[in-house]
Amino acid sequence: MVVPTTTEACMTETHKAYVICGTPRSGSTLLCEMLYRSGIAGRPNSYFREVDIAWWAEQWGVSSIAGTDGPSFDRAYLDAMRKVGTAGTGVFGLRIMYRSLADANRRLRRALGGTGELPTGLHKAFGPLLYIYISRGNKLSQAISLVRAEQTGLWHLNADGSVLEGDVERPEPVYDGDRIAAVLAELVSDDRAWDTFFASHGIEPLRLRYEEVTKAPQQTLAGIFARLGLDQKVALGMAVPTAKMADATNRVWAERFAAEYGVS
Q1: Where are the alpha helices (DSSP H) in 93-216?
Q2: pLDDT digits (tens, 9 = 90+) for 28-76
Q3: CA nearest 105: which of 123, 117, 90?
Q4: C-alpha to C-alpha distances, 190 to 18, 35, 86, 263, nearest whole angstrom
Q5: Angle between helices 177-200 and 139-152 (to 10 degrees)
Q6: 106-114 own/partner pairs: CB under 8 Å, 24+ apart
Q7: Calpha distance 149→36 (Å, rounded)
């Protein structure tokens, strides 16, 4: 099977599936929530995140009695993923972080009986894909956001301030310059790895920036809908479903880190 990954193919094919590529705390959850709540663009999520496979399988009624690491499980899991990720809309949505690529490729190869690289498996599983790449310009802010979420267990808030994902009861975050530095290096590395991935497979993704997405989420969504052949007016009329979480603590940590590590 020839996988259409050139810029020309991406612009001319009708996409009925998309994959959001990114790194943690880059705005992908806001994007996923808006796409899902639109009611016309599937239900994207990190279905190939290895630590969540068993949980998803239980939610979907996929048997894991024989384990979650074999062809029969992967075939059943993929079938369920297609159904859930489409959510009755005719458009399939998926989110994937760079560090999940190898696991996704392994499971797709077993489920589909192929030996090719990941874009081949994704195309075979879901059809012509629109690749959406979301990144964050301010990597230090991204790293601090991730470290705070790791410490507190609070990952995302609804627009009304209630918990969307994470712990209701949580400890106070504590500044950890070494951890921030390590996470910062990982985020920079993963962004570079995504660029290498796209270049090596001839993929020209729809590129989004966290700073632009959070400033104009409805317009961003309308742009995605345009590429998917969906009604852009639905996007422009939507409410923003999540709340920003950065506060004075983030600013204090950023200033302290910059002073200690000479990074801004």
Answers
A1: 101-112, 118-126, 139-152, 177-200, 210-215
A2: 999 999 999 999 999 999 999 999 999 999 999 999 888 999 999 999 9
A3: 117
A4: 20, 24, 28, 18
A5: 120
A6: 107/48, 107/74, 107/77, 107/78, 108/74, 108/78, 110/70, 110/71, 110/74, 110/75, 111/71, 111/74, 111/75, 111/77, 111/78, 112/78, 113/71
A7: 23
